[in-house]
Amino acid sequence: MIVQRWIVSTLAVGFVFGATALWQRSDNPFAHLAIAQGQSPEPKYTFSAVWPQPLPVTDFRSASISPDNAFFAVVASDKNTVTLRHQNGKKIWSIPDPGATKACVSAGGDSVITYAPLNPTRPSVTIVRGIHADSVTRRTLDGAIWDASMSQDGKTAAVVTGNHSLYLFTMRPQLSCNQWSIDGIGNSVAVNTKTQCVVAGTWDDSGVACYNFQGQLLWKYPSDAGKRRTVLNRLFEAQFSQDGQYVLGISYSNIHHSDGVLYLWQRGGNGVPLWSHALGPDASDLKARITADGRYVALSYLQNIAQGDRSAEQRWLLLLDHNGKEVVRRGGLLFPPNLVSVSPDGSIIAVSVGDKALYNVNNQGRVFAPKSMDTSIRQTATSPDGTLMLVYTGDGALSLVRPL
């Protein structure tokens, strides 16, 4: 019996590594799909290019799409510039902004904020107001910036720093700022003007806290400071659903970004999660997005499989419903999905698979025909509602794609 178990175990691990090698060497995404899903791809739910030709961008750093899908901001390091473009690709303005690596842009394109996360040598934000960059203001904050967020209407922006501070900027009619202290270092921040609330995910006194625009604490998780300090080495991220009624929390270990857990809160609640969903200690590289109405959460993660002194990795895609229950689980060795976006109603999830392919997965778990890029996908950026994505590839080209 011991010999039999050893043989079975060895064969299982051998299959893992053999299948992984097969995936890495195969160039046919449809072959992976047919094996993984046991079905033929269907010619619908395909991706469509918005521009006839991609835009060339040298030394691309990041991009951000406005909530109304009409504008996007691109940060490039070749000339230390930030550029605002219309959805059709036309350049609206470009300004020098040395050191900036990220940007947030509002609906209408009339408010942009740029920053350099986790860069202690650039503890400042650049605030651009007006559709033609009529006003450019640089504001130095009290420490390295960890994250920033812009409200959908562009009236408010929030920034968190490593000095336990949250800055809330009123963008118009006059630029003003309210600053207050938060428990822990702000790892992420999200702001919503519909509900007049801002949420921060922290570590070093880890948790999620919700405030009103006057800086008054509405709720905090965990509510007890002692419990927060017991999760000292966990990082929390927080994001609003577009309607502002729900808050998605993402928690993972500070070491190897593993042991992922998701939480859902009601914005007007008392800080007790509606549900939590633990992925296990071997889950890492967690990405999650909440739908516009808060009914679904899409996520992908990497799972490590160990057998003796050998290990392999599998990547999984999940769709959770409003009760935190799994509606869809797809992935494994031959189809390793990486979350890119989720549609407003949760009906379609866009994922990247391998180096060059994008796939759509519906809310029944069916996988549809891919879009293959000419070269490897380096970065993606999606609109808040998940209906547009910017794809930057290894040949220096930026494409605007509709995943639906």
UniProtKB/TrEMBL annotation:
InterPro entries: Quinoprotein_ADH-like_sf, WD40/YVTN_repeat-like_dom_sf
Name of the protein in question: Uncharacterized protein
